[in-house]
Fold this protein.
Amino acid sequence: MNHSSSSSLTLSGTIIGFLNYKTAEGLSNRSVDSYRRILEHWAGYTGAIKLNQITPPIISDYLLYLRTEYVPRRFGGATHKLSPKTLRNIWISLSSFFSWAHTEFQIKNPMKDIPAPRFQKAPVEPFTQDQVLRMLKACTYSREADTTDRRRFVMHRPTANRDQAIILTLVDTGVRASELCALRVGNFDPKRGQLEIRHGVEGGAKGGKGRIVYLGKTARHAVWRYLAGREDGENADAPLFVVSRNHRFTPDALRLLIKRIADRAGVKDAYPHKFRHTFAITYLRSGGDVFTLQALLGHGSLDMVRHYAQIAQVDVEQAHRKASPADNWRL
């Protein structure tokens, strides 16, 4: 398209074309939705502006606003500002959009004059064995009730089997929150202890890559025991883990569940992705090799796996049998 025809394009109208392009590239719905949220928020801030009118100062002003003033609405009512890593991800999304627009419409790419925001990677801290044991116990019993008219007591939680199965699945497979929430009963093989993580919106796998992950004996039994108590436990199309009224979990609901369990257990800084870190580091410390770990985590490169290996302080060339954190810890 020539420059004169691109001069009539609005930012909002062009975003649709970019999202269609990313969909055609084969990106997962999750990734495309992330682009959509970022770009539509930016378009709402910028207003009705032509694509070729966007300059580096306009983008810099937006990034400054995000850094200093913007407070997003978060699940649970949290009000903290965007993290440096999130700001960098926004910069990456804008850069990708303008690289495409430069090729599609021959406009100047304003992102070339805007340096990427810097951020320091947060240290990866896994759960300890004691913390996981405490959370598993907190799945079973409520906090001790302190009353004036009767002795202190604890109650058995009706969701104990489900919550223990979720924690053991997270720690023993390292699956992402979106992947766990997308699992169906038919994705679980109780005989072999396999979970099929499917690609695309149905499976939640990042980057459109499906894979098979494995449960050790402890986690496999916990999932089987949970399903055995459900009326739809043999329905292959039913969600593997359900909340009230048999609805599947969402990542936000899963995050809230883990936080509540951790609060009862006295464990701080608990969130679903921390189980992924715990799986990876404990897997390596227990003798697992980095190349198998890369496949189990669904990473496209060894970069993050090498980072785990450095934390675990193991030789990246060692190759041992797959290790099960839940079995080694006797959870």
